[in-house]
Amino acid sequence: MSPDRTPAHPTTAPAHGQATTAGRGQDVIHNIGYRGYEGPRLGRSYARRALFTQSLRGSYGLGRSAKSKVLPMLLFAAVCVPAAILVAVAALTKSKELEVGYAEYVLLMQPLLGIYLAAAAPQAISMDLRFKTTPLYFSRPMERSDYVAAKYAALSAALFLFTAVPVLIMYVGALLVKLDFGDQTKGAVQGLVFCALFALLHAAIAAWIAALTPRRGFGIAAIIVAITVPYFLITALQGIALTSDNSGAIGWLGLGSPGTLLDGIQSRFLDGRSGFPDAQTLTGTQGAVYLVVFVALVACFYALLLRRYRKAGL
Amino acid sequence: MIAIESLSKRFPRVTALDRLTVGIEPGVTGLVGANGAGKSTLIKILLGLSPASEGTASVLGMDVATQGGAIRERVGYMPEHDCLPPDVSATEFVVHMARMSGLPATAARERTADTLRHVGLYEERYRPMGGYSTGMKQRVKLAQALVHDPRLVLLDEPTNGLDPVGRDEMLGLIRRVHTDFGISVLVTSHLLGELERTSDHIVVIDGGKLLRSSSTAEFTQRTAVLAVEVTDTDEHPDGTAALRTALRKAGLVPHEPAPDSAMAPGAGHLVTLDIGGEAQGADESVFDTVRDTAAELGLGLVRMEQRRHQISEVFTERSAGDVA
């Protein structure tokens, strides 16, 4: 007992001396007075929207320190500038179409998108775990599912913007240099659909990985690995399949990584140029399977993400 | 404010709460228990985040099992652990948390400015929180729990990690949350001593069971102790002993010096005597008697201090008795 009590002496002793100084401080605060809040309380859906906006802005470093704006903005510039160059080239060469298709452009930019995602997802998700901010969210009206929905939507939207803006730059540029309006509009719409698919799948994967670790560094590395390694692996396997006269397997192999999955979908359904070896496109059955796998993957990673938060914090 | 009715929470290996029944009235209530006594589990259940194994609980008249969201809208929560991202400023952070509680953007900003000022954060609120002292961080944590003007706040170990001065300030602040802001407080601590100064009512739990629930005044009155320190003079080389004898003549009952009092430095120069037990009015005459006695002896009166920490002894004795 005495170890408990002895340190209590210094706390009780200065209390009297302080009472006067603290009392003066309190007087100042007294004069300002406490005002209650009688206004509206907008509840869950409002909180979800507010969290979405805040996370989306945060993915580009807005509302955060100047330092944290550098990387997203540099990467954003890096995906936009080539789009502008493509337009300039089309204008100079007076060609009938852009050198690179809309969806194809997004696929070409994959390494940059991967880096951006690897930086944005841990920022949006791991940091709340690392600094244990999640209990503050869950002690408020929102449910865990609201939190997950807002974070996933924000990450998807951030990635969508990241890919859609260059597509729009190409489209506006294409119209300015008077390429065929119908062709370009159709291509751009398909490109935007592809951006959305790309964002939904990759955000789900990255969000789940980021939710597994409170460490930003691990998150970044794991996301880059998860996105690039399967892609290169599958592309290599497809190459082997082609050289070993198993070209029928190329389409099925493509299911094995998010990158090739999306590549297959865009070449089959969005009039894109296939990035597969031999520029193979999918058969009807393969196309259907690709779509089913796409939906299943997104749903699966989202469910995993929800499950991750069932026990997180508080 | 809170009604808990034979509430149990069992985990596969441990029973965190065991048929706990207790009512909590408006005001400041201290929830005391050792680590693992079930305090955090109770808070989780009260916020509607964890279902109870059996029993019921209601907060602000709402059932925790079915109206968790509505409860959380009107209740604030300050966690025990660190929960502040270091790269945002207190203002941005608290505004965000206000919006998470459902406040519209403008209201969130106004309430944030008000609340941060009330908890005593001024210029530093625009700086990233990574550079804050523990005391400042605790203030921000308190502010985010108060920003939506809840009717009740649950504070989990708010004095953890604070130095004595910071602890006193935090305890004063908690007191003001009730007296000035009109918000009821449930504050947990494993130190009874610090809760008795802020709380109107104290609930002690141990091993998920209720040990005791009673008003603080009841105990303070019974156990208040006056400690007097005097100087030695040539006439009275042992001033303490002289005072003790004189006080006994004056009809007071000073405590005998504890045999091991020499162990604690300075403790030998203290005379302690009970001043509680009788009506509160008796206190002042005791102070006068002590002062006059010391003056007559020509001793320098270094300090007279009313101590209350012995409450903890009462509780421990009682809880030991209750358990047995």
From TrEMBL, chain A:
* Chain coiled-coil ranges: none
Q: Where is this region: Disordered?
A: 1-22
Please give the Pfam families that the UniProt record associates with this protein.
Answer: ABC2_membrane_2
Alphabetically list the UniProt keywords.
Membrane, Transmembrane, Transmembrane helix
List residues traversing the bilayer: 70-92, 112-131, 152-177, 189-211, 218-241, 287-306
Tell me where on the tree of life, at the top rank, the source sits. Bacteria
The protein's name: ABC transporter permease subunit
